[in-house]
Design a protein that fits this description.
three-stranded antiparallel beta sheet; 280 residues; six-stranded mixed beta sheet
Amino acid sequence: MKIGSDFYPYPVLTDYGDDYVDSSFQVDYSIKTKAFDTRILRVDVSLKNEGLEELVEDKTAGIYLHLECPQTSYRKAIRLEDYNYEIVIDRNYMIKQLEVNCLLVLDEDFYAYSNPSFNKMYYDEDYFVRDLTKGSILATTLTQIIEIPYEGENLENISSIIRVGQSEEDFMNVEMSDNTILVKIPKKQYELYFRYSNTVYQDLIMTSTILPALIYVIDKMPNFEDRELNWYKVINSKFESQNIDIVGGNTGYTSLELAQMLLEDPLERAFENLDKNVEG
């Protein structure tokens, strides 16, 4: 949804109109990187209008971000909980470009809306807007195009070099002698892994199986002899892309931190999913 210099039947605060005086509604967008491939859209909203600020404060109105990706037809409106907000870019739906605009929207019906900053050139002193309904726009910005960079597109995904298998042993162990890392877990645990690995609990499963396996692997990598194995080259190339010397062993990070970076911080996602899906 591209928003331009539309005309509204009532005053709307914009960065291209003059319905208001001594007021502004502006947004700065920036992309930052977390771990290796996770991109985060940082949104910094600046609202200068006491009347509108009060509506946001008492939750009569909310600040919303509308995201749309032309390549995937993805579109979503997100209510921002603060003037400074971060959104993880989902690479399954947000590719190459995002069309982004920010809006201040009523969250409930409003019988009579007035604002001291209405431009007196157009509106009388006692002017007010009748019967604004929930969803009415009070402020908006022009649509901006956000480029999404992915320098690591040519690197293989970590999931392509790790397999999970069943073991007859009592404890989990890791085999590193083939082109893929094999994580072997006891039969009962493997059955549970298989049952839940493609559910909302997949990140929790990852933190209890893949994460400790990667910690073990990373600890072994500086002295590992067969560096032509595919899993070694993929992991090493990931580290090299971030100027991390895993071979030399002086990375500046612990193995636990490096493993979380490779998996794009699964612990955070695991707890977020638990919070959403577990009652009480």
